[in-house]
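FORM 7B: Structural annotation worksheet

SECTION A. Query
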Amino acid sequence: MRTARPRYIAVEGPIGAGKSSLAAILGEALSARVILESPDDNPFLGPFYRDRRRHAMSVQLFYLLQRYAQQGELAQGDLFSQGGVVTDYIFAKDRLFAALNLSPDEMSLYDRLYHILKPRTIAPDLVVYLQARTEVLIERIRRRGRPEEKPIRAEYVEEVARAYAEFFFGYSEAPLLIVNASDIDFVGNAAHRAELIEVIKRAPPGTSHWARQ
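SECTION B. Predicted structure
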């Protein structure tokens, strides 16, 4: 068991898994600073969902530089503040999406920049990976009703979820807690929320799994 709770927690998972919601919940519960991705700031995201091939490189480079800038904030001492930090992404997720969406030539160029920036980022003390069935992800995307996400196809959601599963199968950069999020409601159900928070606080080193019984 851990002797102290992690200072830097990153929440991850495919589109619709609940990353931002859980990050905000953990921030409040742990009195931690919350750093969220800002999809609304990316002017290429809406066009990307309508035409992946045309806008893939633009959307990826914007996110890569945005996430790198946020990592710079962490390096300036936020991890040592009283409550620590919670993010709704890990830096490596950017390359996961790039590998899905870029052509081989674009990926070669992207990788040159990614591998320059990656060594300057900070690894989390714990990654919480939210898994969910594709139909659950699609329903959550539909329910939150973001205009830019309306063109998202079920096939793309399934493709992203599969890429996440493959990525985290061999993940070893930080302790990993894999949470089956299909049948829990940590946003609307106080009991589910409290139980998950305690599981995260007690997450052991290495890789562990949790599903609500």
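SECTION C. Observations
The chain has one domain: 8-210. Strands lie at 8-12, 33-35, 85-87, 126-131, 176-180, 207-210.

SECTION D. Sign-off
Analyst initials: ____
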